[in-house]
Amino acid sequence: MNARPVFNAREEMLSRLRARKPATALERDFYVSPEDYQIDLEMIWYRDWLFIGHDCEVAKTGDYLTVQIGEYPVIVVRDREGALRGFHNSCRHRGSRICSEEHGKAARLVCPYHQWTYALDGRLLAAREMGETFDKTQYGLKPVHVASVAGYIFVCVAKVAPDFEPVRKHLEPYFAPHKLENTKVAFEITIVENANWKLVWENNRECYHCAGNHPELIITFPEDPTITGVDGGFSNPHIASKWKHWESIGLPSKFHISDDGQYRTARYPLNPGTTCYTMDGKAAVARPLTDTITEPDIGSLLLFHFPTTWNHIMADHATTFRLLPLSPTTTQLTTKWLVHKDAVEGVDYDVKRLTEVWLATNDEDRRVCQENQIGVNSPAYAPAPYSTIHEAGVTQFVDWYATHLEERLTEDAK
User: Fold this and answer.
1) Of 68, 49, 308, the residue nearest 166 (C-alpha)
2) What is the mean pLDDT of the chain?
């Protein structure tokens, strides 16, 4: 079967977006089509700011992390002046990937193929035997936009990046009190879910499935649709009371969503008598994230930023999630647990206890999403309405996706 020409594929997708039923699942092609997947990459993943990691992972000169965004290998490194630099992880000689490890440290960036050598600011320092007329100044690494806010690192591979300042203005007040720049990664794991990236997000944006699939998580996580929905909790007196108290001690907490629906923040209480996502509901780390927050029960600060990340930040640790698409029907999920940089494993925390709830939950979601994809693959699949009670958050995500994509496809077609 021949692939659709790219412009025909875009026109067809735009037609489907304009005809879609509100508050209803997307049609099959959005989840299975290679052409739709490529459009997702070009219109969203290659144009938006994407969360890739944390400042604490590149804290010192020469520290770097790498990430694969669709067809783009990217490296972020701390330069000698202490600034973050983002580059395409592709040698300017013949294109070899320069750094293959996910994390590392280097005084210079050296291509393993022919040893072209770059400074941490991207300048080409050495290229063996290229002749007297070769001009090194013309062959520095190609830059990638990079921005950091309150311990979170974002990149954008577009030639011209969207304005990051609205994101910074939104996130900084919520996250600055937690001082995530002074943390370390206590544990990290990457899994592959055999499902389209949108199905992974849709699963995340509701707890309709939690009772039947997440026995570990529901010990502490409230099955409250006001948390996952667009109301954000304003109609819930218990949540409103908690917000009032937490904000009185300097912790911004009220639900806030960006004008375009791409990112949202709020702090929510856990189930009564619990303060942490552990099997007993008690703190997993004896040393809190920061000495300036003395209360053990500050709920969980949630951040959702489409298309790459959701997060839970508590008094003692943070759990962050990064989603990246691998193919039309596979998605990579990386989870990291952050603790105070001076917390000692075996003294202040036990890795098994710290991670067991989300390790179990991620594996359960992996199974759920895989089965969802298998069913959606069927030509018999037909979209149905979302639950107005439990799946308002799913509707909000799909609305963002469809509106975002329609606007860009329409603009590009002019």
Assistant:
1) 49
2) 95
